[in-house]
Amino acid sequence: MTEADVPKGLSAKLDKKRKRQAEESTKQDKPEAAPAVASAAGGDESNKKKCKKNKNKKQPEQDATTQERKGGVDESIGKMDGRLLADYFAQRAQKLDKELSAVELGDISVPDSAFLDTTSFSDSRTLDKLPDFLKAFSPKGADLSKASEKKGTPHTLVVSAAALRAADVVRALRGFQTKEAIVGKLFAKHIKLEEAKQFLERARTGIGAGTPTRISDLIECGSLKVDEIERIVIDGSHIDQKQRGIFDMKETHFPLLKLLTRPELRDRYGASKKKVQILVF
């Protein structure tokens, strides 16, 4: 029997039955999609957990950095020997100037032999401990309160990131000052270059404290003589209120590297005579 031969009433019933079956089939299909939704939800939960784990991993690293930079002191600096410091200086230069070529980096790289290992100094590297630090790493019998007969010829330079900090260093080292050996102010704060030149030309100074640029300027003009320099102390552990140290800023790190790699100093690193050593405080 064909559909044409089916009575109209029966045909209507068949249509209704087909619609019912179609609806039931649709309802049965919907629950099958639910696991996919649940799976997607599960994926979101998994991603959230992964994000939390990653955040938790980063947190200890940040906490460790904060722990090493507290109380105005970066404690990690004092744990580096000469080899690590030489690498660190170069790495900081590359980070601060992405366009620095290999040749340019080589020109301002400080050799391992330049550094005196000061990792044995167990006290905190706060400013009040700087005099003890200098005594600890000076040869036995060396008198830090003495100065050369030649004017403007110190045996020690202390290099800081900023003039205000250098002024604090001068005050901290007053214990080494005598009438015949002045602690020189080699920074620009309230002191013009001409005034600094005049001071060095008339005064005997055993220790000079200042900033990289001003010290370089005074060497360049001949007022600050480095013939008898024995040690260059870098005020490296100090960090300011913005958590920045002398190695963290382009405007201080590069002038420092240029100072340390001046030919009259670089040629004497590791030398048997007139040796110059770099100490990082």
Automatic annotation (TrEMBL):
Any matching Pfam family: CMS1
Basic and acidic residues: bias regions: 21-32, 58-75
GO CC terms in record: 90S preribosome; nucleus
Organism: Penicillium brasilianum
Domain of life: Eukaryota
Region (Disordered): 1-75
PANTHER family cross-referenced by the UniProt entry: PROTEIN CMSS1
Record-given protein name: Protein CMS1
